[in-house]
Write a structure and sequence with these properties.
Blueprint: E1 2-3, E2 9-10, H1 17-26, H2 37-43, E3 51-55, H3 59-64, E4 73-77, H4 83-94, E5 99-104, E6 110-114, E7 122-123, E8 127-132, E9 137-141, H5 145-156, E10 160-164, H6 168-171, E11 180-182, H7 186-193, E12 199-203, H8 208-218, E13 225-228, H9 232-246, E14 256-257, H10 269-284, H11 295-303
Parallel strand pairs: 9-10, 9-12, 10-11, 12-13, 13-14
Antiparallel strand pairs: 1-2, 3-4, 5-6, 5-8, 7-8
């Protein structure tokens, strides 16, 4: 989270009252009722070495700031940050580089260095070390209405979104700013995309000529999520095509998700997008969803007569 001395804020640390308290403490934003130079100086952001502060030390304070019972939040305040160092960090992240940022607690000096794998935040009496990026990426095959809803959700969830569709009639109607749109064939785009463990590839065209080859290429990458829209029947047919025409095995197709999304009874494109984004976020965050939230399993249970004593319906036997 960044604060300016006039009260402007970018980002957040808690999404609640703590931000208001920080603004109140370290800016002039809430000092309009005061007058005089002394009051303005009192409310201006200080400079010098970083400062550590804690919220929620007492039960009353935790309640005041909306923290869970007994929870605390410790923040490091860096004053007068080096704009060039911040720009260098952002530039490296934009290039897909994982970066380590070290802050010297005695004087606020920042050191940046590339690293190969994420590391847990480290805090000692001398320095704070954290790793950043690269950003999560989503590649969507197809530029239809469902893709627009899903791209919008992915963008505000922090993903960089690329949309691939060689069909001009779909690309021409695309209306989501912030997403990169490309027109090459999907399998070529997947290769160029170079998906890593922070990437997901989702096929949404319903056209095997576009979806299948792209999915096959995606399954050869480290993408954490590879899936395609479609019914249970279509998904089964897709797997059969891949095994018959591309010599894939069941084991090789195990990572292919479909029907994608979690079961929320979605009907409209916007509801389906919510379903898909929820599953993507769960996989990204390492959350194992209950089996009856899987679209295919949930629909199979729904279509099975309830008087079958061996069937588990909606979690109740």
């Amino acid at each position: 989270m960044a604060l300016c001395e006039d009260g402007a804020v970018v980002g957040s640390v808690s999404g609640g009252c703590i931000e208001d308290d920080l603004i109140d403490q370290y800016t002039r934003a809430y000092a309009q009722h005061q007058t005089g130079e002394a009051a303005a100086q009192e409310r201006s952001i200080p400079s010098g070495a970083p400062k550590s502060i804690k919220y929620g030390i007492t039960a009353d304070e935790a309640h005041r700031f909306g923290l869970p019972c007994g929870g605390t939040l410790e923040l490091l305040l860096e004053f007068d940050p080096d704009a060039d160092a911040l720009a260098a960090l952002i530039g490296a992240l934009d290039k897909g580089q994982l970066m380590k940022r070290s802050v010297d607690l005695s004087d606020g000096r920042v050191t940046l260095s590339p690293c190969d794998s994420p590391e847990a935040l480290s805090l000692t009496d001398a320095q704070l070390v954290n790793t950043f990026g690269p950003e999560y990426r989503m590649l969507l095959i197809g530029a239809g209405q469902l893709s627009e809803y899903l791209a919008t959700m992915a963008l505000f969830s922090g993903f960089a979104v690329t949309v691939c569709d060689p069909r001009e009639e779909y690309r021409g109607a695309w209306a989501v700013p912030g997403a990169k749109v490309v027109s090459d064939m999907p399998d070529d785009v997947v290769q160029a995309f170079a998906a890593d463990h922070r990437s997901c590839v989702i096929a949404l065209t319903h056209d095997p000529k576009l979806d299948d080859l792209a999915l096959l290429e995606a399954l050869e990458t480290d993408a954490f999520y590879v899936g395609a829209i479609g019914s249970r029947r279509n998904h089964a047919a897709r797997r059969e095509r891949m095994m018959e025409h591309f010599d894939k095995t069941e084991a090789q197709l195990e990572r292919l998700r479909g029907p994608i999304g979690i079961y929320i009874g979605s009907k409209t494109p916007s509801e389906i997008a919510v379903s898909i984004m929820a599953e993507v976020m769960a996989v990204k965050n390492g959350v194992t969803l209950p089996r009856d939230m899987d679209v295919g399993i949930a629909k199979n249970l729904r279509d099975t007569p309830h008087n079958d004593p061996g069937v588990l319906v909606c979690g109740v036997r």
